[in-house]
Amino acid sequence: MATFLCKLGRLSFRRRHFVALIWVALLTLAGVGAASAPAAGNSSFSIPGTEAQKAFDLLEQRFPGTSADGATARVVFKAPSGEKMTDPGNKATVQDTVKELSDGSEVVRVTDPYQAKAVSKDGTIAYAQVSYKVSGMELDDAAKDALKDSAQDARKAGLTVEIGGDALQAVPHTGSSEVIGIAVAAVVLVITFGSLVAAGLPLLTALIGVGIGVFAITGLASALDLGTTTSTLAMMIGLAVGIDYALFIVSRYRAELAEGREREEAAGRAVGTAGSAVVFAGLTVVIALVGLSVVNIPMLTKMGIAAAGTVAIAVLIALTMVPAMLGYAGRKVKPMGEKGKLLGRAKKEQDRPGKPNLGTRWASFVVRRPLAVLLLGVIGLGAAAVPAASLELGLPDDGSQPTSTTQRRAYDLLSEGFGPGFNGPLMVVVDAKNSDDPKAAFTETGDAIKGLKDVVTVTPAQPNKAGDTATITVIPGSKPSSVTTENLVHGIRDAGADIKAETDANVLVTGSTAMNIDVSEKLNDALVPYLVLVVGLAFLLLIVVFRSILVPLKAALGFLLSVMAALGAVVAVFQWGWLSGLMGVEQTGPVMSMMPIFMVGVVFGLAMDYEVFLVTRMREAYVHGEKPAQAVVTGFRHGARVVTAAAVIMMAVFAGFIGSSESMVKMIGFGLAIAVFFDAFVVRMAIVPAVLALLGRKAWWLPKWLDRALPNVDVEGEGLRTASGDDDGDRELVRV
């Protein structure tokens, strides 16, 4: 592989005009496609195989024209102090508002609070529900403005009016913090390379790769039902890995120049060596992201595949466009150790012999005290992982919105007037098509639910025109995310089994709360198979790369430590509220249901990046005759500075998304940033060298039969050394 990639790098360097033209053309084509594509609607959220999804699908079949997936809005009214909503003046204002709302072309129906008995017992709060034909993301701006204007008119009459539901759903924005993250990455690159040109190359190529990926996702969003979060995630991961991959190749290019090679040859060898690590690191990320499809949640699958495609583009950009850009840069990219006037250090570092760099000093310290460093790292990560034991999963709703939003204030008013469970109603669907007496089945179902604990209200059954299916709304006594409400959902389903035995009617529970429970269970059930698949495939891949059993095993165990510590940090901030003000978390609550399995996938792929980049340098030194402990130090001397810079860049990019208005994106940004910190600086920089020092030569052991069976991918670039005749004859090549 190294030989092929070397030829590719040299070709890209020589034919840089052609390579640059191809990538610019692809960027332009993707941009035109994105601009001309129809606007994407709201991505549908379906969970195949769950009871909640079956009930939802049944509603669409048996209640045609009800727009089950259409947007809804709850306009909540509160009377001034000392007044009631039933007072003539307040009642007239509400009825005028209902009439005004009914005039919208996209409105299906508006319920009158006084006819629907949607007035609180104390008479101070009422609400009108508005149902639309289309989803919140597809709703016209005119319809949203009409909704806001009607609320404003009621406010002028003296009422407190807030609007809940998804009708006011907006495209999430990331804010200025995303730009700050890129700016931090630029500063780190300048410090690392000491040159604006060398620092600008990884940023430029990464932005081109991300641009192609995001434009392609935008262009296909409508056809493939991709949500806005999909492109945000692709941008987040694509930027991080794109900058890192280019950073490693540019750094290796400068190292090759420092050894006296010509620029074309240095570019080829940089792609042949560091490029090999990029390919395998990118493969682990792609495997982890595509592996999310085993969960069988379409939204998660699409997010994973889209992000994986962006990573694949980042790999191709690093292998072709980076060497082409190096050709354009010429002598402005200086050899390793020689920095430009930007930092005032034009003198070569090798002119000051005898002063080891920080990576060398740190690795020497770890090699001398491996057990102490190992124990300290494991105990520290274990302590950070403790909050993960209290992990509570849930899906975001209006209750997780900031208190400054009208959606959150409407949520709080409804809880105040109608109880905490009112914001999470359960919809029970009774399918009595096979029942001899559907009406009796409907009645028996309602009576059975009334006898369960934590039930506040059970509405009469509402049958469809055919009379074979009915819906019953159940209002729990507890908030949607509580364990008590979860127990109620299971209680209704258990009661449904008895009803089916007696009446042949199927009882299904759906609604946001039931969907949340089903999602959590599905994700929990899929976590172990997903871990086995992803970690297993990556383990086999790393055996091929490192030609070792224990090194890939150590990599996988280290990843588990870092991901558990990161989950603990997420729980501490987003669930417990630690440092929530600093992170801009206005409302704590359950962690998003998809967060654990998503973090496992993404963090595993990123963790393997640093494993491959750092340990391949160690293996390269070991196979050329160095002792195991010295090989660890050599690996750090060449790779620690670059890996550190890459980790800081990746953390900065991820942290930039903490400023997003979307709670899901904010949580993912923080989780990935802290996970990279734990994995790069604790696991890879401390635990990995400590374990390798303790294992010694055993770390590189591989059964002879397996050694003969495995393909030789030559990540270390041994074929390049042999072909060029510059192999160090004073050192014997170690067979591992």
The overall pLDDT, averaged over residues, is: 83
Number of helices: 22
Q: What structural class results from the helix and strand content?
A: alpha+beta
Low-confidence stretches: 345-353, 727-736
Cα-based radius of gyration, to the nearest Å: 30 Å
Taken as a percent bin, the fraction of beta residues is 5-15%
Helix content: 55-70%
Q: Termini, distance in Å?
A: 19 Å
Largest sheet: 5 strands, antiparallel
Overall 3D shape: elongated
Total DSSP E strands: 11
Topology:
Elements: H1 2-14, H2 16-36, H3 51-62, E1 72-78, H4 88-101, E2 107-110, E3 125-132, H5 141-156, E4 160-165, H6 177-193, H7 196-224, H8 228-258, H9 263-290, H10 298-329, H11 358-368, H12 370-385, E5 393-394, H13 406-418, E6 426-431, H14 438-450, E7 455-458, E8 462-463, E9 469-476, H15 483-503, E10 506-510, H16 512-546, H17 550-575, E11 591-592, H18 595-623, H19 628-655, H20 663-695, H21 704-709, H22 718-724
